[in-house]
């Protein structure tokens, strides 16, 4: 009989040495509790958006759009000098469903806007626990509907809209793809899922391996999912749009790019999701980066593993948006 995941907690793939050194020096807590949500929201993890845009030929416009619980805010980023309709990227930020905003993790997305002439729409969706499920995913879907409906004025080719997300935002992007399929919404060209947060059950081997370690631990994952789902977390009352890993039918979904670190909680649920996409006849490209912790490329963008991951991701985006 094989050992249970609980007994395997000390046997785990090590962190990449370059990344591990950075992680060991990080002042951030390895366990995010509900009490830390407020202080983390008040902290600054990324450069101000004005600084991010200062060296780019990109204009930003903030827009207000209707959402299921009231008005939502999104930022539209347009490459300067573009005249003909081009591709669009609808982006959903990370933060474990509890922190972050529409500018979190936007820098790499804006690189693609510059290179490929893509218009980026980044949504400020409501956060848990103040706004539990289904608020975040319904906000995300409403933002996508708005983007598709306003594609002409945004300068977006409606047949070339990529839905992208990081971590919790990637889970929401997968939820939007499922909602769009089931509600027969506008076409999604493809889905870019960067270390997606997909499974509230938190019972995979990798979720046990990375307990109290890493940039997003098993315990932090419990905090995020509990904030979103409350007492429903881990029960049969959780639906596929909140936790896409629970979906058994992944047919007729857009092609996907999924990447994840081998040394993080989400490894196994992300690999399983890619496998189920293939089993349902959906094309998917999967990368598991050896020794990568959660969102390692955002934390240490100059590391060798980060540059390799960014290069592979950019190559897929380029092929997807220019074919």
Q: What is the domain total for the residues?
A: 1
Order of helices and strands: HHHEEEHEHHEHEHHEHEHH
What is the CATH top level name?
Answer: Alpha Beta
What gross morphology would you assign? Answer: globular
Low-confidence stretches: 1-8
**What is the mean pLDDT?**
95
Strand arrangement within the widest β-sheet reads: 1-2-4-3-5-6-7-8
Termini separation comes to: 49 Å
Structural class: alpha/beta
Percent of residues in helices = 25-40%
Main sheet properties: 8 strands, mixed
CATH superfamily: Alpha/Beta hydrolase fold, catalytic domain
What is the strand content? 15-25%
Rounded radius of gyration (Å): 18 Å
Number of strands: 8
- Total helix count? 12
Which terms would index this structure?
Rossmann fold; globular; single chain; alpha/beta; about 35% helix; 8-stranded mixed β-sheet; 12 helices; disordered N terminus; about 325 residues; about 20% strand
Question: How does this structure look, described?
Answer:
There is one protein chain. This protein has an eight-stranded mixed beta sheet, sandwiched between helices. By secondary structure, the protein is α/β, with parallel strands linked by helices. It starts with 16 loop residues before the first helix and ends with a helix. Mean pLDDT is 95; it is low at 1-8. Helix content is 36%, strand content 19%. The chain has helices at 17-25, 37-42, 49-53, 107-116, 135-149, 151-154, 168-182, 205-209, 218-229, 267-279, 296-299, 304-322, and strands at 58-67, 70-79, 86-92, 119-124, 156-166, 190-194, 256-261, 284-289. It has a single domain, classed as Rossmann fold (3-Layer(aba) Sandwich), CATH 3.40.50.1820. The protein is globular and about 55 Å long.
């Amino acid at each position: 009989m094989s050992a249970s995941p609980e007994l395997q907690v000390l046997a785990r793939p090590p962190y990449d040495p370059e990344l591990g050194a950075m992680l060991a020096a990080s002042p951030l807590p390895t366990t995010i509790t509900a009490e830390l949500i407020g202080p983390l929201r008040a902290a600054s993890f990324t450069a101000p958006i004005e600084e991010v845009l200062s060296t780019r030929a990109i204009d930003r416009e903030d827009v207000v759009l209707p959402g299921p619980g009231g008005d939502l805010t999104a930022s539209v980023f347009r490459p300067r000098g573009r005249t003909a309709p081009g591709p669009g990227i609808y982006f959903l930020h990370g933060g474990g469903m509890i922190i972050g905003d529409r500018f979190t993790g936007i820098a790499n997305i804006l690189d693609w806007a510059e290179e490929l002439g893509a218009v980026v729409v980044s949504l400020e969706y409501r956060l848990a626990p103040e706004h539990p499920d289904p608020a975040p995913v319904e906000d995300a879907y409403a933002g996508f509907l708005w983007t598709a409906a306003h594609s002409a004025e945004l300068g977006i080719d409606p047949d070339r809209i990529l839905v992208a997300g990081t971590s919790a935002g990637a889970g929401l992007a997968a939820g939007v793809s499922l909602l769009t399929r089931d509600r027969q919404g506008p076409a999604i060209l493809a889905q870019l899922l960067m270390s997606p947060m997909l499974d509230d059950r938190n019972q995979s081997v990798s979720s046990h391996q990375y307990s109290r370690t890493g940039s997003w631990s098993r315990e932090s994952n419990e905090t995020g999912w509990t904030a979103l789902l409350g007492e429903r977390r881990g029960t049969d009352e959780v639906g596929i749009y909140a936790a896409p890993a629970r979906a058994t039918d992944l047919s007729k979904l857009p092609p996907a790019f999924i990447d994840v670190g081998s040394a993080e909680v989400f490894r196994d649920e992300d690999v399983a999701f890619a496998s189920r996409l293939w089993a349902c006849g959906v094309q998917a490209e999967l990368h598991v980066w050896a020794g990568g912790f959660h969102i390692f490329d955002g934390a240490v963008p100059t590391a060798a593993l980060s540059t390799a991951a960014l290069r592979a991701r950019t190559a897929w985006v380029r092929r997807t948006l220019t074919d």
